[in-house]
Specification:
The chain starts with a helix and ends in a 22-residue tail after the last helix. It contains two helices and two strands. It has one domain (2-55). It is of the alpha+beta class. 17% of the residues lie in helices and 8% in strands. The longest helix has 9 residues, at 47-55. A hairpin with a 2-residue loop joins strand 1 and strand 2. It has helices spanning 2-5, 47-55, and strands spanning 38-40, 43-45. The chain has a two-stranded antiparallel ribbon with strand order 1-2.
Length: 77
């Protein structure tokens, strides 16, 4: 998984910024490859928690998640 080894591509002290709409769809990835967005043992498993679990071994969170407007470009203008 990409998140499991992204630390290898950063210099020491580097900052990793992750931006994604996390639109989990079976058309694009199998559920077993998702880091969140599903129920597990009757509890909701959030994407943020899954990502934090994968990255916590090599990264310290320096800023909490932020909502950013998501815009889909329909034309070149």
């Amino acid at each position: 998984m990409f998140l499991g080894y992204i630390h290898q591509f950063l210099t020491e002290g580097g900052i990793f910024i992750n931006a994604s709409p996390y639109t989990w769809m079976r058309d694009y990835a199998d559920v077993q490859d998702w880091v969140g967005g599903y129920s597990k043992d009757g509890k909701e498993h959030f994407t943020y928690d899954g990502i934090k679990a994968v990255l916590s071994e090599h990264f310290d969170e320096i800023k909490p998640p932020q909502d950013v407007e998501f815009v889909i470009r329909e034309t070149r203008r």
